[in-house]
Amino acid sequence: MTRKLRCYAVALGVTVALTLAGCGGSDDGGATSANSKGLEKTTIKVGALPIPDPVSVYIAQAKGFFKEEGLTVEPTPITGGAVAVPMIESGQLDISQTNYVSTFAAVAGGKKIKLVADMYQAGANCFVIMVPGDSPIKTVADLKGKTIFVNNLNNVATLAVETQLKVAGLSKDDVKFAEKPFPEMGNAIKAGQADAGWITEPFITANQSANGFRKLADTITGQTEDLPIAGWMASEEWVQKYPKTLAAFQRAIAKAQQLASSDRKEIEAMLPKYTKIDAKTASVITLGTYPSELNANRLQKVADLMLEYGYLKSPLDVKSVIAAPASSG
Residues in domain Solute-binding protein family 3/N-terminal (predicted)? Predict the structure, then answer.
């Protein structure tokens, strides 16, 4: 079971960085014919953003959960789930963080992708539209004709914003979406490259402090309340080729998710290590929840919203996208 983590927002400065961990194709690198756990592959590259969502992969590393499974995990930076799909297909990544919108869109487009573990569910004020403090934009309706930065196009960012545009009597045709990685959004908006941005932590806090930004709207409300945001994905081929390796990853991640959901201190201790925020900031930033199991009924909400807003042309049964859970091993 998960518990809702209280959401706070404060004006503190943040400098974000993520340690690079090799960028070559992973193919069969790390594979071994014999190891104590019988894994088909003992070293894997895992894509992750420098945000709170994928904290479980770092908790699992720090607590030795991967090591207990005979697995070495190399976190590799990505900018979003949409760009991670081709990296998964090419073998550059074995497993990656993804947002569910990007995954379901990819599957609907014929991509052979499977969800292998849950990661993050949004809470109030975890994903917001922000504008400069002196911006003339006062309401969502004022975004008509404006440019909004998102980390990737046609993903959970644009969908979440569109739900709020609808409430304001607008549609996606009334605004322009443009891509910009989360760490670069604030300065780019300040420089006039866009009028607003869809921003998550720790960048909400960073932009309040460094750039004097203010929240225009929470995008996790109404239709998107408690929206499942992100999970871990792999290619269907990879899932079939490395079942024991996948099961080892799933077991380790499930343990880490349980820790994250039951004790915020575990998250706070880890965030400074891969996002480079300080401990004080980690203790107060906005957080959602960390589910330990993929639940098709819960994820179906995302696919249904995508259908309503034109991200899918026909209904998608998310059960078909979920890989089998790991055994207790």
Answer: 43-270
The reply to whether domains 43-123+226-316 and 127-224 share a CATH topology is yes
Sequence ranges of the domains in the chain: 43-123+226-316, 127-224
Question: What gap in Å lies between CA 168 and CA 1, rounded to an integer?
Answer: 35
In single-letter form, the type of residue at position 145 comes to: G
| Range 43-123+226-316: architecture per CATH | 3-Layer(aba) Sandwich (3.40)
pTM: 0.84
**C-alpha distances in Å from residue 138, one per residue of 8, 129, 194, 203, 214:** 22, 11, 15, 21, 10
Mean pLDDT by 10 residues, the chain (329 residues): 38 34 40 67 97 97 98 94 92 97 96 98 96 98 99 95 98 98 96 98 91 97 96 98 98 97 96 89 92 95 98 97 76
What's the CATH code, domain 127-224? 3.40.190.10
Q: Whole-angstrom Cα distance, residue 72 to residue 31?
A: 11
**Rounded to 5 degrees, what angle do the CA atoms 3, 5, 8 make?**
165
